[in-house]
Amino acid sequence: MLAARRDWLPQEKTMQVHFSARENGPERLVADAEIHFTDGLLAGTKLVGFALWRTPEGDLSVTFPSRAFGSGGERRFFDYLRATDGAPEVIKGVKAWILDAYRRGSERVA
């Protein structure tokens, strides 16, 4: 599981994560996720494209919205959500927040 400092995690009153199960999705896809903004300039909007996956070992992981591109014959991905200072801990904190919300069963959407 990803470790995260609690002060980096979003405030529940300003953002909520919502989950939606996929009946006919890929084999290890657990749920699609979206972040709903409930306060501030982004209130009433949502950020979509997150997904929860089960690894072959049975652990859960989170993927972010991204764009695929080719680079030297390789397929790479450009994540749309990145830390402004490039610190990986911030992104790990967001992933931990999403996983924690899923495990608590909060805001599940059918």
Explain how this protein is built:
The chain is α+β, with helices and mostly antiparallel strands and 110 residues long. The chain has one domain. The chain contains one helix and seven strands; from the N terminus they run ββββββαβ. The N terminus is likely disordered.
Low-confidence stretches: 1-9
Secondary-structure element order, N to C: EEEEEEHE
Say how many strands there are. 7
User: How many individual domains?
Assistant: 1
Beta percentage is 35-45%
The gyration radius over C-alpha positions equals 15 Å
Would you tell me the overall average pLDDT?
Answer: 84
- Terminal residue distance: 26 Å
Estimated helix fraction: 10-25%
Biggest pleated sheet: 5 strands, mixed
| Helix/strand class | alpha+beta
Count of alpha/pi helices: 1
Strand order, sheet with most strands: 4-3-2-1-7
Rough shape? globular
Keywords for this structure?
110 residues; two-stranded antiparallel sheet; disordered N terminus; 15% helix; 7 strands; 5-stranded mixed sheet; alpha+beta; 1 helix
Secondary structure layout:
Blueprint: E1 15-21, E2 29-37, E3 46-54, E4 60-63, E5 66-71, E6 74-79, H1 88-104, E7 108-109
Parallel strand pairs: 1-7
Antiparallel strand pairs: 1-2, 2-3, 3-4, 5-6
